[in-house]
From TrEMBL:
Organism in which the protein naturally occurs: Drosophila willistoni
Top-level taxon: Eukaryota
Domain Exosome complex exonuclease Rrp40 N-terminal, chain residue ranges per copy: 29-66
GO CC entries: cytoplasmic exosome (RNase complex); nuclear exosome (RNase complex); nucleolus
Name by which UniProt lists this protein: Exosome complex component RRP40
Length: 235
């Protein structure tokens, strides 16, 4: 059993994570990919390091190829079709996700979002389980969009699921370092998708290549990657 939480805790499929069970007795706990709740127990469904994000979010880092939706995940999705009051959205999972036209800021029956097949949206997973298709929303608990919603212009590309989670960590050193090189906007999904927009297509492509180079490196090489990016931008 995994009795304590640390950066080196490795869990295996079927293993109970008693440290999370104990915490869940007194606090609200959010389980991400690789963890499942079975009655009063928490069980790992994948092998890998047990990760934790404040205040009480846990998941298992696993180099899987296909994204498995979990409640609360930030994802980038491609609108595939409209079906009644819903839009079908591809988020890279086994099942197509859905989002209601009312799941956008200020949306009403008379003021519906104008979404078309091929549009890219940044959304949060509202519901996800093995029995139902994933449901998305583009607003927070206060009904505001924040950074969510339709993404226009910019450049869309894919990365590994692991890199997506790394980039989404609070105060990610890599993204902070890139900000010192040039201004940009970015939306990262845990489903291994990234939307990026800099001042020009040249800057956008240079930055996207620098981000993808993080797949094969670690934080100790960020300065070198930033130096390479600076040379490209000045060339």
């Amino acid at each position: 059993m995994a009795n304590s939480i640390s950066n080196t805790t490795i869990v295996m499929p079927g293993e109970r994570v008693t440290s999370i069970e104990d915490l869940a007795k007194s606090k609200r706990v959010i389980l991400g990919p690789g963890l499942r709740r079975l009655d009063d127990t928490v069980v790992a469904s994948k092998a890998g390091p047990l990760r934790h994000k404040d205040p009480n979010t846990f998941w298992v880092d696993n180099y899987q190829r296909r994204y498995v939706p979990a409640r609360g995940d930030l994802v980038l999705g491609l609108v595939k079709a409209k079906a009644g009051d819903l839009y079908r959205v591809d988020i890279g999972s086994a099942d197509t996700a859905s989002i209601s036209f009312l799941a956008f800021e200020a949306a009403t029956k008379k003021n519906r979002p104008d979404l078309n097949p091929g549009d890219l949206i940044y959304a949060r997973v509202l519901n996800a389980s093995a029995d139902i298709e994933p449901e998305l929303v583009c607003v927070n608990s206060n009904g505001k969009r924040g950074k969510l919603g339709v993404l226009s212009d910019g450049f869309f590309f894919k990365c590994s699921l692991n890199l997506g989670r790394v980039l989404l960590r609070e105060n990610c050193p890599a993204l902070t370092a890139f900000t010192r090189q040039l201004p940009y906007e970015i939306a990262v999904g845990v489903n291994g998708r990234i939307w990026l927009k800099a001042r020009s297509m040249r800057e956008t492509m240079a930055l996207s290549n620098s981000i993808l180079s993080l797949e094969q490196t670690n934080y100790s090489q960020i300065d070198r990657i930033c130096g390479d990016l600076g040379e490209v931008l000045q060339g």
